[in-house]
Each structure stands twice: as C-alpha cells, then as structure tokens.
Amino acid sequence: MSTKSPAAVAWTLPPAALAIFLRELRAEFRTRELLNTTVVFVLIIVVMFSFSLNPSAQQAREFGPGLLWLAFLFAGSLMLQPAFTRELASDTISSLRMAPIDPSAILFGKVAANFFFLTFAEWLMLPVFGVLFNVPVWPVVGPLAMVLGLGTLGVCVAGTAFSAMTAQARLRELLLPLLLLPFLAPVLVAAVDATSGLFAEVPELRFTPLKILAAFDVIFLTAAWLLFENLIEE
Amino acid sequence: MPAHSASVLPPAPAAPRAGAVSLGLSFDQVEKRFGPLSVLRNVTFQVAAGEFAILLGANGSGKTTLLRLAALLAQPTRGTVRWEGIPAGLGPQGNDCAGYLGHLSQLYDELTALENLQFFARLYRLPFSAEELRTRLASAGLDSWGGTLVRAFSRGMRQRLALVRVFLHSPSLLLLDEPSAGLDTPGIDWLAGILTGLRDSACTVLMSTHGDSPLTAFASRVMWLAGGKLAGDAQADIPSALRQADIAIRQDRGGVR
After folding, report:
1. Host domain of residue B137
2. Is the ipTM of this structure higher than 0.90?
C-alpha cells in the first residue's frame, strides 16, 4: 500500500531498521528472555545427543554437523516465535506500521536482531559441542563462521517472516515450527554438507553448499522484502 | 468540567507543525466482516480537514474497528477508506501526518518512558533532545518517571505516556479511541488542554468516546453507530445530537449490554 517515492524509501529504511535493531537489542539485554532460553535449549540438545549416542571420533565427524544444525534450527524456531507476538501484546506493531518508515525496515531490524541473538547462542555452544563430540572446531573457525553466518541468516529471514505471518493465528506456537522447519530443509541440507566438509579428517571448504546457502539467503530476503507489508496487514 | 478549565498540568505543544497539511478522511460504503460477523455495514461519511468529530456507540458497536480502518491498519471487506489531501511523495502507509491511539498503549514495556519516546522520535526523524523529551514527559506529569520501565507504570500513567507519544510528531489527523480511559481528573484536564489546542488548530480529529465524557465538549460534529451502521451524524446543535445519540445507543440491539 505504500506509495512513497524510492528516494524516500532509501532514506528512511537504513536508519529505521537500525533504530528497530537497537531497540530489540536493548530490550533483550535488559530481559535476557530469548538469549537465556535459546542458549539453555541448545545446550540441553547438544548434551543429550552426546549422552545418548556417545559417538566415536569417526561417528562424531559423520553425525555431529547434522546434530549441531538440528539443535540450531530447533533453537531458532523457539527464539523466533516471539519476534512478532511481542509486538501484539501492547499493539506496538500498530505504532510501527503508522510510523513514516518503509515497512520492510521492521523486517530488516528484526532479522538483524534475531541473527545477532542466534549467532551469539551458536558461538557460545560451539566450544561445548567441540569438547563433547571431540570435534576440532578451532582450526576451521574462519570457514565455519562463514557457514554459520550464511545458514543462520537463512533461518532468521525465513523464521522472522513466518513469525510475522503466524503471529495472529490461534495455534501460532505450533504453526511456526510446522511451517518453518520443512521450509528450511534445503538450508539444513546445505549447511550440514558444508559443516561436514569442515569437520572431515582433512578439512575442506565445499563451495557448492555455500552457494546454495547464499542463493537461499538472497531468495528469502528478496521474497520477504517484497511480501512483508502483506504479511503484517490485518 | 469545562473544556478549557485550568489544567493542573501544563499542556504539551500539540498543534500541527508549521507548513503541515491537514488531512481529511473519507469512508465510502465501507463494510467490515470478521468471518460470519458483520461489524460495520455500508458506512459512508467524510470528515473534512480541521473538523473535530466524536464517534459514539454502545460497546461492541464497531467504534474501534472503524478507527482501525480509518488508521489504515485494517482493510475493509468492502468499500474504500481514504485520507484526503496527502502531499505528493507521501503515502497512506508512510507519512508523518497521522496519529492513532487505540485501546492498548503501543508502548514497549521493557523500555523506559524516555527510551520509548526516543525510539519513536527516531522513527519519525524528530530531532528532539533528551531534555526536550523530558519536557514532554513533565507536561504529562511524568517528569520523575522518565527512567522507569513502562512495565512498572499504572494504567493511567501508560495512557498519559501513550498520549505524549501520539502527540510527539504533531499529527494533522488524529484518531483516538477513548483517549481518557484510565486517566484521573488531572490527566483528563491535561488531555482537555491538548484537545483545546487541536480544536483551535488545523488538526482533524476523529475520537471515540462515551456520551457523558467531558471530552464531548470539543466536538464540532457527532456521529454515532448502531446496528453496525452510521445511525446519526450531526454537525450543529451538538447537545441535542448527544441526546439523540444517547437514545439510539440505549436502543441499539447490535451492541453489547
């Protein structure tokens, strides 16, 4: 519905997205609701997988990346749930929609904040994962950061968009993982493939899954950008 | 309470900014359904720029729905809602001319009162310093509460802060849904002071309230809803219109009693 000129959009989007990102950070570091629950959740999954499977070094290299990304995906779906439901509690979403900003600034601000939170949780968990599964994380930390960044961005973009879509649904707590997890299957496959290459006996950086992750990020971001205004309409 | 009674609190500056346009509002055969429930039917009216219209109706008569449609926050099932007089380059979903306050505070509980105002000032690109925002808070009697999280506020304090927020950018079209809800007598006096300024300026106001509210004193027009329809619309003899509206609202079987 926005009929603002492209120049006006270009001017308002980055500062508005930054303002929303900083507001999310300030609120989260004050309450620590999302960070605490996400970190504890990932920790529980990684520890329980480790105790139940008790994998050898070879098995850890084979299954570790899959378990790690499943833990990140489940944690992401848990963390992204309140991204928009919190905006409904006091109807702050209406004040955001009434503000003279491009609506996609709301999306980008929230995606950036969710990316920051999930990345924070992932990097806290990586040393724990390395110790429990006896996987050498430190030697491949550079390429691993790239894989985690691309995979996490895909999870956060799709998860934030689905969170906006399901926020007003009655069964939103169930609906978000039901919609999100199958949708993220390609991200999971590509991220696990890339991470497996890094955790192999002779680590290698596999470019094909990285390209797939990058392509998904671009497609998700573009689609979410184009559709976001419709997603938050009543 | 007279509309211009001496206020305990100093009024906040709320008139539209110099050079700002005043928007009008038009509803054309608007219908709104929620599933099988028809809330509004064939609602047609125009509020001219600068008018101060109040909207009356029984509980459940559709006042809130109408205001959300007017704020372009909801889509009508049928018909059109338009803001009239939007300057070129600004769109209905992205201009700084309108303000809306609904039943909820539209404030972030986990931010302080001052942080809330700073955040919205930033979104509206208003170059207010922290000191200027504290002055706004002081005008609402919240001068010592600027550093307190909104989650600790009472209902009335939230409403005061919500009103400061909605007046922050000096909108020229104001949509207020029962703005005096939760306010104590000094708070209503403060709000009355602001509404006096708005009535005397070019600001267009559509405000839902109840017939016995002191805020009806500001109305230059009274509209009332009954049975999902615009049952009455008067622009003269406001006291008589308020009595007519009261009778219609008591007889409305569509609202909740």
Report:
1. 108-169
2. no
